């Protein structure tokens, strides 16, 4: 499976990682070296340094040791504020109108619905390269976590709630996506194929899905919902309107717009 | 020698009282998390009945009155012990127990009534949170009652002393604490349903 | 639920025995054999009475402390067996099932985390607190000795439930965090999650009481002149840790009780349907869970502070800074819990604020590292094993801190959450940060407790095995996480992962050698205890009060209560020659009598838990009644103390 495919989100997250990592190395590497050096220089058995057993304070050192971490965390904090907003998974990516895909986590497989194309697939999701993708995600079972590692980003899938993730692939290729949150016996194999393809190939793929004769309905969904490990790829040529929203709503008898409120025990 | 041991005893009691305050703080955190959970789940009716359909104003008023008065009587018991009146201490403690038992009886009647109406704790998230919050308070009251009855027995056996007064003082604190929690339950759980 | 619940045995039946896999079956046999072997050994040595009066019913904080640490070391071995089994499975399981079926693998990763946090790290910490803090503050005991025994026995009851789950029934498969709705009955019926709930719930009650006990002990039982700003760092960190305990543990109690109510009484706190809200569980759990990290690590920081000063033969640098840093960390630890679920879909503002709050904790933590560094600076460093662990910690911990800051940046967290990067990060905090600290403390204070030193050579070997083993086991996991490998994988299909997983397994084997070295160290030292004898009570040229008394200390600790005039009180008195205290007191001392209340409540707690797990309601209520009766009975009993005469210098136990 080709894993070198990448997209703007993965690139930005990666870049931020190395940026923050390098900044911290500036402090961390000297600290480690200094620790080893001091330990060696002031060793009791033949160490060279001066011995001042009662020396326990120095204003300059105190200011420095509080100052260095404060400055560093200050810099990082501005990056966090800026990048967290820029890379908000709910934020639509610029460019063309996004392709809308809805993902439902089942035991132990993924159902993808293309509401605008009126088709659905199991364990395979395809999309045109360089087009923004807008996922709405939920779960029918335990909490899952949706991720296509090559494209970056990750978001929980929770029953009765909807989360969102915006991604994009910059290259053509096949990737593996998966559930990242342990959810039972089939967890290890709960992967799906994510295919980034040219616009023409994508249209051909959509036609292939449409040419099948199985519809996603109550019966086929009930069948699909039965727990199974390593389920094969499957296609549904038609999908009822608002299927995803109704699956979200049926758990609660109450409407959660999205899961954007982590308002549990905090008061 | 007697004076010295009194001093030691006093110090031990003081430490125990401090420890008890810490326990109450920890318990206050526990209750505030239960209140928080109730707030989060207050709209999760899942098609089941809400508080306005279930709660009875008269029952609530009686319960609240019983508990508030019991807070007064236990304070009187502590005062009596402090001033060395054994009989009065016992009398007020017995009254406190009766009031507390009355409160519990009404609570059990109310909650079992809900269960009979198919509004038990398994009906909805809201009712789970309601039963757990109110039930936890009720369990605390039960513990307080057992404690109070134990103290009555100990007062009878040991009479009034520093150690016993300190124990009663801690029970009084506990009882007032439960009163405060109940005021929270009253105003955050019940009252909004009547407004 | 259509389970068959009988009145007498609840849902316990013959199918509870572990015949489902040979690995589980041998685990059960080893557990049983260990228990039986212990019973036979005690009987054979004829030591039942000594064990009962000297240890099990003891309310002496020193004995209780030692029992806590013994429990922790036993559980360390059990938790480590789980760890190396996981490493072996993952090293093997490329496109194959390995040797563990999924359900068994899931039990192992769940029990590994649960044991290491609740039954290894917590008892280890509590044991060190118990043994050392009264000695460091010049006190004869903790504030509430019997309560202390009850705390220990409740922890032991929880550990007992944990161990028995290996023999009767199964353990949870829902991980050590027990996230619903997966941990609900809908997805995980059976007794596993209930074992998890009740073992941590019962031990959690004990921990809460420990927190109360030590706050009162530290704030009210210090020797005259021991001002707050003269307290040793370990005592300071113990105080902060205890404060965190009483504020944080209610959240664990609430979250697990609600999960138990969902599972047992069919309530809907965290279920998918009927108005449950599982996000509430995560908030509650981590409101406890994040402070818990600091509950564990602050005392370890305290140990490093003691060790680094003693073995550098120098005053601790920046004591006020270290105190402030500790309290700041304690307070901030309550403001960051949301970083455990940045991927839940909260808005960018919320995520950014919690990310920044998390990184702010790096500031006081960084200050601490610098302060230890400057304590070594201009010192005379002796590389005894505790000091080696400390230097190893300083080098490794900054790496873990760095990966922690990376995880605190929400966009980076989106791509590393739930991967082995996260696993590597928290092991990087907990092994060098927590465990190295406790092991350093164990080797540092061992001569105080037993009157002889631990063998230096095996101690150093253990350190090097732990250090290299840790690096080999967890650096690959950082890399694997960045390659997108999720945690908790029973099998996988990516061939690029396997070499790194094999390296990680080799690392685990080295850690095994580290543990073997610990056992060897103990064995060799006991054999040579005469040669290693500590006759002075001050083998390391110590600085704090615990070194001013004989090793091992008498039951009453101090013949007469010391009068403190400075920080590093004992060191000061060695320099100035001023004795710490006046002559032994004439009057007899009162020390608490042994009490059977501790073991009784422990047994009662175990019955409550076991009954609740298996729906054996009579057992549960019998246990509850027994506990209440024991407490009430105890309160009628006035003659709780016994007189001793320190002047005679006789050991009373």
Automatic annotation (TrEMBL), chain A:
Any one cellular-component term (Gene Ontology): plasma membrane
Listed SUPFAM superfamilies: Cupredoxins, Cytochrome c oxidase subunit II-like, transmembrane region
Subcellular location(s) of the protein: Cell membrane
Predominant location: membrane
Membrane topology: Multi-pass membrane protein
Limits of the Cytochrome oxidase subunit II transmembrane region profile domain: 1-91
GO molecular function: copper ion binding; cytochrome bo3 ubiquinol oxidase activity; cytochrome-c oxidase activity; oxidoreductase activity, acting on diphenols and related substances as donors, oxygen as acceptor
Domain Cytochrome oxidase subunit II copper A binding: 96-208
UniProt superkingdom: Bacteria
One Pfam family linked to the record: COX_ARM
Membrane spanning stretches: 20-40, 60-81
Keywords from the UniProt entry: Cell membrane, Electron transport, Lipoprotein, Membrane, Oxidoreductase, Palmitate, Respiratory chain, Signal, Transmembrane, Transmembrane helix, Transport
Biological process according to GO: ATP synthesis coupled electron transport
Family: Belongs to the cytochrome c oxidase subunit 2 family.
PANTHER family from the UniProt entry: CYTOCHROME BO(3) UBIQUINOL OXIDASE SUBUNIT 2, CYTOCHROME C OXIDASE, SUBUNIT II
Protein name, per record: Ubiquinol oxidase subunit 2
Taxonomic source organism: Roseovarius albus
Gene: cyoA
Automatic annotation (TrEMBL), chain B:
Keyword Translocase: no
Family assignment from sequence similarity: Belongs to the cytochrome c oxidase subunit 3 family.
Pfam families, per database record: COX3
Major location category of this protein: membrane
Keywords annotated in UniProt: Cell membrane, Membrane, Transmembrane, Transmembrane helix
Gene Ontology molecular function, alphabetical: cytochrome-c oxidase activity
GO biological process: aerobic electron transport chain
Keyword tRNA-binding recorded: no
Top-level lineage group: Bacteria
GO cellular component: plasma membrane
Heme-copper oxidase subunit III family profile domain location: 1-194
Annotated membrane topology: Multi-pass membrane protein
Name listed for the protein in its UniProt record: Cytochrome bo(3) ubiquinol oxidase subunit 3
Subcellular location: Cell membrane
PANTHER family documented for this protein: CYTOCHROME BO(3) UBIQUINOL OXIDASE SUBUNIT 3, CYTOCHROME C OXIDASE SUBUNIT III
Assembly mode: Heterooctamer of two A chains, two B chains, two C chains and two D chains.
Its biological purpose: Cytochrome bo(3) ubiquinol terminal oxidase is the component of the aerobic respiratory chain of E.coli that predominates when cells are grown at high aeration. Has proton pump activity across the membrane in addition to electron transfer, pumping 2 protons/electron.
TM region positions: 20-40, 60-77, 89-106, 126-156, 168-191
SUPFAM superfamilies: Cytochrome c oxidase subunit III-like (SSF81452)
Xref: InterPro entries: Cyt_c/ubiquinol_Oxase_su3, Cyt_c_oxidase-like_su3, Cyt_c_oxidase_su3-like_sf, Cyt_c_oxidase_su3_a-hlx
UniProtKB/TrEMBL annotation, chain C:
SUPFAM superfamilies attached to this UniProt entry: Cytochrome c oxidase subunit I-like
Record's keyword terms, sorted: Cell membrane, Copper, Electron transport, Heme, Iron, Membrane, Metal-binding, Oxidoreductase, Respiratory chain, Transmembrane, Transmembrane helix, Transport
GO molecular function: cytochrome bo3 ubiquinol oxidase activity; cytochrome-c oxidase activity; heme binding; metal ion binding
Ranges in coiled-coil conformation: none
Sequence intervals crossing the membrane: 20-45, 66-88, 108-133, 145-168, 195-219, 239-261, 281-304, 316-340, 352-377, 389-409, 421-442, 463-480, 500-524, 600-632
Listed EC numbers: 1.10.3.10
Domain Cytochrome oxidase subunit I profile as annotated: residue spans: 46-565
Membrane topology according to the record: Multi-pass membrane protein
GO biological process, one term: electron transport coupled proton transport
Gene3D superfamilies: Cytochrome c oxidase-like, subunit I domain
PROSITE patterns: COX1, COX1_CUB
InterPro entries linked: Cyt_c_oxase-like_su1_dom, Cyt_c_oxase-like_su1_sf, Cyt_C_Oxase_1, Cyt_c_Oxase_su1_BS
Cellular localization per UniProt: Cell membrane
Pfam families: COX1 (PF00115)
GO cellular component: plasma membrane
Similarity comment text for this entry: Belongs to the heme-copper respiratory oxidase family.
Protein name as catalogued: Cytochrome bo(3) ubiquinol oxidase subunit 1
Source species of the chain: Roseovarius albus
């Amino acid at each position: 499976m080709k894993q070198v495919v990448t997209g703007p989100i993965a690139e930005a997250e990666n870049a931020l990682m190395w940026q923050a990592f390098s900044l911290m190395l500036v402090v961390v590497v000297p600290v480690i070296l200094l620790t080893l050096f001091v330990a060696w220089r002031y060793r009791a058995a033949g160490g060279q340094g001066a011995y001042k057993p009662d020396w326990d304070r120095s204003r300059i050192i105190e200011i420095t040791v509080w100052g260095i971490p404060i400055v560093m965390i200050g810099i990082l904090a501005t990056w966090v504020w800026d990048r967290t907003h820029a890379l908000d998974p709910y934020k639509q990516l610029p460019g063309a109108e996004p392709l809308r895909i809805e993902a439902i986590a089942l035991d132990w497989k993924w159902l993808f619905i293309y509401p605008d194309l009126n088709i659905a697939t199991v364990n395979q999701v395809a999309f045109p390269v360089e087009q923004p993708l807008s996922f709405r995600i939920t779960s029918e079972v335990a909490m899952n976590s949706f991720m296509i590692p090559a494209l970056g980003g990750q978001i929980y899938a929770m029953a009765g709630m909807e989360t969102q993730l915006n991604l994009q692939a910059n290259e053509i290729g096949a990737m593996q996506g998966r559930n990242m949150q342990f959810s039972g016996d089939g967890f290890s194999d709960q992967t799906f194929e994510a295919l980034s393809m040219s616009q023409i190939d994508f249209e051909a793929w959509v036609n292939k899905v449409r040419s099948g004769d199985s519809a996603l309905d109550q019966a086929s969904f009930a069948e699909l919902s039965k727990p199974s490990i390593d389920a094969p790829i499957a296609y549904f040529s038609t999908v009822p309107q608002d299927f995803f929203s109704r699956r979200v709503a049926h758990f609660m008898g109450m409407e959660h717009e999205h899961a954007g409120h982590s308002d549990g025990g905090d008061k | 020698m007697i004076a010295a041991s009194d001093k030691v005893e006093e110090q031990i009691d003081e430490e125990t009282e401090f420890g008890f305050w810490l326990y109450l703080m920890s318990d206050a955190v526990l209750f505030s998390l239960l209140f928080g959970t109730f707030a989060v789940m207050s709209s999760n009716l899942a098609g089941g009945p809400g508080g306005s359909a279930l709660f009875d104003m008269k029952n609530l008023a009686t319960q609240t009155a019983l508990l508030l008065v019991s807070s007064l009587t236990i304070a009187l018991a502590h005062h009596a012990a402090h001033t060395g009146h054994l009989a009065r201490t016992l009398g007020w403690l017995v009254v406190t127990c009766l009031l507390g038992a009355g409160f519990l009886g009404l609570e059990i009647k109310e909650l079992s009534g809900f269960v009979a109406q198919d509004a038990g704790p398994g009906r909805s998230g809201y009712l789970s949170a309601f039963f757990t919050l109110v039930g936890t308070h009720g369990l605390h009251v039960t513990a307080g009652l057992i404690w109070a009855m134990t103290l009555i027995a100990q007062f009878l056996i040991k009479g009034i002393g520093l150690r016993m007064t300190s124990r009663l003082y801690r029970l009084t604190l506990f009882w007032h604490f439960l009163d405060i929690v109940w005021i929270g339950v009253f105003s955050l759980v019940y009252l909004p349903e009547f407004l | 639920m259509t389970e068959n619940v009988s009145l007498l045995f609840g849902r316990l039946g013959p199918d509870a025995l572990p015949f489902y896999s040979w690995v589980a079956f041998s685990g059960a046999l080893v557990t049983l054999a260990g228990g039986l072997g212990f019973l036979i050994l005690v009987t054979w040595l004829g030591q039942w009475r000594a064990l009962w009066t000297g240890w099990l019913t003891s309310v002496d904080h020193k004995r209780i402390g030692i029992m806590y640490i013994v429990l922790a070391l036993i559980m360390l071995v059990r938790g480590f067996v789980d760890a190396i089994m996981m490493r072996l499975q993952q090293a093997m399981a490329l496109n194959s099932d390995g040797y563990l079926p999924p359900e068994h693998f899931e039990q192992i990763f769940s029990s590994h985390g649960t044991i290491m946090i609740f039954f290894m790290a917590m008892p280890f910490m509590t044991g060190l607190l118990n043994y050392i803090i009264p000695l460091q503050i010049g006190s004869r005991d903790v504030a509430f000795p019997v309560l202390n025994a009850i705390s220990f026995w409740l922890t032991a009851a929880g550990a007992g439930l944990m161990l028995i789950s290996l023999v009767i029934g199964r353990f949870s498969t829902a991980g050590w965090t027990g996230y619903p709705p997966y941990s609900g009955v809908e997805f995980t019926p059976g007794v596993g999650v209930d074992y998890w709930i009740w073992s941590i719930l019962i031990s959690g009650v004990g921990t809460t009481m420990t927190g109360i006990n030590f706050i009162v002990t530290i704030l009210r039982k210090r020797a005259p002149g021991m001002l707050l700003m003269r307290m040793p760092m370990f005592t300071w960190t113990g105080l902060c840790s205890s404060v965190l305990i009483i504020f944080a543990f209610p959240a664990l109690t609430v979250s697990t009780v609600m999960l138990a109510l969902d599972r047992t009484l069919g309530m809907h706190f965290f279920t998918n349907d009927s108005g449950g809200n599982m996000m509430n569980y995560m908030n509650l759990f981590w409101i406890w869970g994040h402070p818990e990290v600091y509950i564990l690590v602050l005392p370890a920081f305290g140990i490093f502070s003691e060790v680094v000063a003693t073995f550098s033969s120098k005053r601790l640098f920046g004591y006020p800074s270290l105190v402030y840093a500790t309290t700041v960390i304690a307070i901030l630890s309550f403001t960051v819990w949301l970083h455990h679920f940045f991927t839940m879909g909260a808005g960018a503002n919320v995520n950014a604020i919690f990310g920044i709050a998390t990184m702010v904790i790096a500031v006081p933590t960084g200050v601490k590292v610098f302060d230890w560094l400057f304590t070594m600076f201009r010192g005379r460093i002796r590389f005894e094993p505790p000091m080696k662990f400390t230097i190893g910690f300083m080098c490794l911990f900054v790496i873990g801190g760095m990966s922690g800051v990376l995880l605190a940046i929400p966009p980076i967290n989106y791509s590393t959450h739930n991967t082995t990067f996260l696993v590597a990060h928290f092991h990087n905090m907990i092994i060098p940060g927590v465990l190295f600290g406790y092991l350093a403390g164990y080797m540092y204070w061992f001569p105080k407790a037993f009157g002889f030193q631990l063998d230096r050579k095996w101690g150093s070997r253990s350190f090097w095995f732990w250090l290299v083993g840790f690096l080999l086991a967890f650096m690959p996991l950082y890399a694997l996480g960045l390659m997108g490998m999720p945690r908790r994988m029973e099998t996988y299909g990516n061939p690029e992962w396997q070499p790194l997983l094999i390296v990680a397994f080799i690392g685990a084997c080295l850690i095994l050698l580290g543990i073997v070295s610990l056992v060897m160290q103990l064995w060799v030292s006991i054999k040579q205890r005469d040669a290693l004898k500590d006759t002075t009570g001050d083998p390391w040229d110590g600085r704090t009060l615990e070194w001013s008394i004989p090793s091992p200390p008498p039951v009453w600790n101090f013949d007469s209560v010391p009068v403190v005039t400075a920080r590093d009180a004992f060191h000061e008195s060695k320099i100035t020659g001023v004795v710490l205290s006046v002559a032994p007191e004439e009057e007899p001392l009162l020390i608490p009598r042994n009490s059977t209340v501790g073991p009784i409540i422990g047994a009662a707690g175990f019955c409550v838990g076991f009954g609740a797990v298996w729906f054996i309601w009579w057992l549960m209520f019998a246990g509850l009644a027994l506990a209440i009766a024991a407490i009430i009975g105890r309160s009628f009993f006035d003659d709780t103390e016994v007189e001793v005469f320190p002047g005679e210098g006789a050991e009373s136990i």
